[in-house]
Amino acid sequence: MNEKNTVLLEETFKEYYFNKFDLIHVPPRATEREFGYQKINSGMIRHLSVKNDKDLHLLLMREIPSDVYCSNAYYNFPALPMSEKDWKGADLIFDIDAKDLNLSCRPEHTITKCASCQNLTEQQSPCVQCGSTKFDTVSVGCKNCISESKKEVEKLTEILTSDLGIKKEEIQVYFSGNEGFHMRVINNDYESLSSHERADLADYIMFNGATPESFGIKKQTNSKSSLPTLDEKGWRGRMARSLFTSKSKTSKITKEIISGGYSGFQLRLEEIRKTLGVRIDPKVTMDIHRIFRLEGSINSKSGLSKIQCTNLDSFDPFSEACLLGNDEVQITANCPIQIKLKNKKFGPYKNETVSIPKYAAVYLICKGLGSAV
Amino acid sequence: MNKENVLKIGIQDLAKYPFLAEAGEYLRDTGLNLEQLGHDDWKPIIEKAYGRIIVASSGQIYGSDTEKHDYDSDLLSFIVAIILLKSAGISTLTRRFSLAEARRAEKYLQQDLWTNREKNLELPLKIIQELFGVKVSIENDEFVIKIPDYLKRAVHFHEKEWKLVNRRVTDGHVYLTAHETVRLIRTELGEYINSKIQSINIGSIPESFKDRVSDLTSLAKKFSDTQYVSSEYPPCVKHAIEVLEKGENLPHSGRFLLATYLLSKGQTIDQIAPLFKNAPDYNERITKYQLEHISGSSGSGTKYQCPSCDKLRSENLCFATSDCEGIINPIQFGKKRKVQ
Hints:
Order of helices and strands of chain A: HEEHEEEEEEEHEEHHHHHEEEEHEEEEHE
Order of helices and strands of chain B: HHHHHHHHEEHEEHHHHHHHHH
Largest sheet of chain A: 4 strands, antiparallel
Structural class of chain A: alpha+beta
Largest interface: A-B, 29 and 22 residues
CATH architecture of the domain at 3-95 and 170-192 and 281-324 in chain A: Alpha-Beta Complex
Strand content of chain B: under 5%
Strand order of the largest sheet of chain A: 2-1-3-12
Oligomer: heterodimer
Helix content of chain B: 55-70%
């Protein structure tokens, strides 16, 4: 990132960290966690210990990081190298990202740029400006992406509470600061699970690896007696409610299922996986040493903040998580799609110098669609 | 605790579960000591104990006398067996014995959980809870345990049916049959018995024990001959196993050789996977995944064949001896040799 952009971003981030102390707190059991941060144009600094809010605020003011992270894991010695930290346990964490949901709206708000000259292009053929064949894609905020991600959050919450026995108050939902949601579960029972065990838990949540036998369909001889019923709990019940949409059709559908046989049922399982399985990123859930974006901090992919969603239904990240200053600044903007932040529309801009509020300027710069002048 | 609530463990129970701490108390109460066991009268017990080890070493489960109600001899032969094993000090034998005894106990646990469930449920549940920290409760005809307790054990099993997604799960709990409940703790039971044997201290043993201890030592020699360094394996495979056993790094091509060779000899993934445990970058999940892939049970479904001698030579993995003459693939080793 060039010098001018860096100056503008750091100045804006500093202002945020100075003014919004009340939003940024260390998570519970902070002294047992590892912290880390990144500065613009530089690598990750991790294995840090931060004792309390005051320590954290000092760090933010001193370093003005672009991104701040904190471990889901608890250690005896969080500041020592990984092999000496002495792992004690870790919160369950989940990452739901709109870009993993294969939504049909994606092409409408995804922009392709030449990786070397930043020229925007329609298709990924050699860049008309510099001839490069490497391209980056960047996606700007989209209402549909957020509402589809919210549905995944709701599905996950339902499984966590009714199947895994986790209480609602043990689950925290955060907007990730870019295009999705993070969830964290603080529950003693699950804290000690290893990575391998978390992977199987992730498969459960995603409905991966289910066999027809578990739903009463065998390779030979099937009877309707062992098919799941509507009032069952867990995946069997979910499966039944999806198959038998109305009671009057149950016997007809049962016949269809049985005559479809084993392979027919495998196809049904695959359908259920796609619709009812929660599309989390399993790599995040199975990682027990991850440093995860700290709530209240800025996500430098967008300039939006990772913040907790208390009312998911009405939550609008593009106004509620857009917390940077309103002062106008001049930037050169090159964004072919109109964006909406804090209920104000910006763009489209065609490589033009504009004077816009800092929060919008930073958003465009973070996305690589604008440059400070 | 109220005295009535203390679970009474009788000799019938100790015959089934002789590894329980209560077995020691029972022996103390009878006043029997090691010196007395050296007396000729107890010779049959020593023979029985020896037989119990021999049966275990061959991978079988020791048939018990509980049907004939010789509970004392069942308990004592276990105690004497662990004294013999401890004196012989051969970990392979101890491990095999522990596993076989675990499987024997597993059988009784399952019976107690299921058949005798009205009268004898308290003991098996107590064993599972106290020894392994797993709380099992009962709902209708099913056994219910917490999801984390389940996952910690079930992820070591390879079959798809053990995946959590294929289980009945409700409100933080998993529902199991009696058989599945005890299957879940088999490994731990084996480890528990093994650690018990490791931790006991015995001074000098009676003269009458010594013959059988030396028999065990020679038996163990036979084992180590027929195990990994078996002359049945071609030298390239032997080399690969030795490298892994030393905890050194075996290149991917060497691991591939080992896996494909053993699979072609009919070994299962579960039997092969532990060989890689000493590898510096060992990861159980990845190892199993790769073995599954090679065996064709996952991924493309292609079953990979053992690489040819030519290929191995080019990878510096060939350590041919005169026994290798006339073969072009390691899997022919031995077969051709016998013909010649």
